[in-house]
Design brief:
Elements: H1 2-9, H2 13-39, E1 47-54, E2 57-64, E3 71-75, E4 83-84, E5 90-97, E6 100-107, E7 114-115, E8 121-127, E9 133-140, E10 143-150, E11 156-158, E12 165-172, E13 178-185, E14 200-205, E15 212-213, E16 227-232, E17 238-243, E18 253-258, E19 264-266, E20 273-278, E21 283-288, E22 297-302, E23 309-310, E24 322-323, E25 329-333, E26 339-344, E27 349-356, E28 358-362, E29 368-372, E30 383-387, E31 394-395, E32 403-410
Antiparallel strand pairs: 1-2, 1-32, 2-3, 4-5, 5-6, 6-7, 8-9, 9-10, 10-11, 12-13, 13-14, 14-15, 16-17, 17-18, 18-19, 20-21, 21-22, 22-23, 24-25, 25-26, 26-27, 28-29, 29-30, 30-31
Length: 411
């Protein structure tokens, strides 16, 4: 206030020039701000990928939530969920090419998918954390190995050549230095495995060095049990996995492997626990089939297996709920009415959307949910979009014939 009074009392020429200069600077700053505002990057429209089955033809489509006009990407003959690269620049998916299941990539803004693999049949794949490589499992003849391919050079590297095992389902560590994968000993391809093929979890460095079975130097968790569901901690220090992967097996428990010290710890002992994922470096979210219920219950425990507690505060304990990316919001289908319900983990409130559907998937923002009506036994199923509270329903495939289902968000 004193500055304004002092300024208003001064009438000399210097003060007038100072005021003029200040006003000029103010005008220039405002003009610069307006310019920067006008030139700011517009938010990237969110997109969904989904399957559309029309008669004998099954296609992969992409639709922008802004334009709402589905565009066909490719015909597909076998389905693994497409994956957008972490940087949002590419979409990877599998489709048949020359009678082999081929890994394709669709660059952002392009309408023409590019095949990355030739002469081998791809089974599963995963993006590297920096989005510059893809690790995948593929057959070449009777051999099934883990490969990587660079999107820049298209250089193909076989990481597990000659090990006489069926190697599949690669999972990158968050720091990009290691890859975990499933490996079945004594067979050369998973097509030779029966339903209960004895997969073990291995890790390997990103260049193929030092392959290691994480239970090789210690007694296996349970003799004869399959190992599955590897999940890296955010700091890449630990790897969770399951011993026992099917409800029909005698026991399902979660183990934690320390990549640095090679220490193996059993975290759960109920025999009905599976699917560990990391909420943070300190906490693990997992599911259990305890109490004889048909559906999973969600629990949280410390990384050392202590302080186990129920995760969801609602009475519907035996629900198969889908978490948003920040694990605050959950959506699930009421089994009796097929209505989609929304739970807020912070307020412990449940919202009735009055919307019937299935296969709900969260947008990265957590504000929107895509879902399908494929479970409602309609002549035509569609992919829908709604706000988190069930408002602003939009049918994204209203003009697309056939059955449209399995929506997936991509950057």
């Amino acid at each position: 206030m004193s500055l304004i009074l002092n300024h208003s009392c001064r009438r000399n020429k210097g003060a007038s020039l100072s005021l003029l200069l200040r006003r000029l600077i103010w005008v220039m700053l405002n003009a610069l701000l307006l310019l920067l505002w006008g030139c700011r990057a517009a938010p990237t429209p969110e997109k969904l990928v989904f399957i559309s089955a029309q008669g004998d033809t099954t296609g992969l489509y992409v639709v922008s939530t802004e334009s709402g006009e589905p565009q066909r990407i490719s015909s597909i003959f076998r389905w693994q969920r497409p994956q957008g690269s972490p940087d949002g620049d590419n979409l990877a998916f599998l489709a048949e090419y020359e009678e082999l299941l081929t890994l394709y990539v669709l660059p952002d803004g392009s309408e023409t998918p590019l095949p990355l693999t030739f002469g081998i049949e791809v089974v599963s794949f995963a993006w590297s954390p920096n989005g510059k490589e893809i690790a995948f499992s593929a057959y070449q003849g009777a051999e099934q190995d883990i490969y990587t391919i660079s999107l820049e050079t298209h250089q193909l590297v076989n990481l597990t050549a000659g090990n006489q095992r069926a190697d599949t389902t690669p999972v990158w560590s968050p720091d990009g230095t290691h890859i975990a994968y499933h490996s079945a000993p004594g067979v050369s391809g998973s097509h030779l495995c029966q339903e209960m093929c004895q997969y073990r979890i291995y890790i390997i460095e990103r260049d193929g060095a030092n392959p290691q079975q994480i239970t090789a130097r210690q007694p296996p968790p349970t003799m004869g049990m399959m190992e599955c569901a590897p999940a890296w901690s955010p700091d890449s220090r630990y790897l969770l996995f399951n011993s026992g992967c099917h409800p029909g097996e005698s026991a399902m428990n979660i183990y934690r492997f320390n990549v640095q010290t090679e220490e193996l710890i059993q975290l759960t002992t109920t025999g009905q626990d599976r699917g560990g994922s990391w909420l943070s470096d300190e906490e693990i979210l997992f599911s259990t089939l305890r109490d004889g219920v048909a559906n999973e219950q969600h629990y949280v425990m410390k990384y050392d297996g202590t302080h186990c507690r129920p995760f969801l505060p609602w009475d519907e304990a035996n629900i198969s709920a889908i978490a948003s990316h920040d694990f605050r919001w959950f959506v699930w289908q009421d089994r009796s009415t097929e209505e989609l319900l929304i739970g807020d983990l912070v307020t412990a409130e449940v919202t009735s959307t009055q919307v019937r559907g299935c296969d709900p998937v969260w947008a990265a923002s957590g504000d929107k949910i895509a879902f399908t009506t494929a479970c409602l036994n309609l002549e035509k199923s569609d992919v829908w979009l709604m706000n988190r509270d069930g408002t602003q329903l939009v049918n994204l495939t209203t003009d697309l014939a056939g059955n449209n289902y399995q929506p997936i968000w991509i950057p």
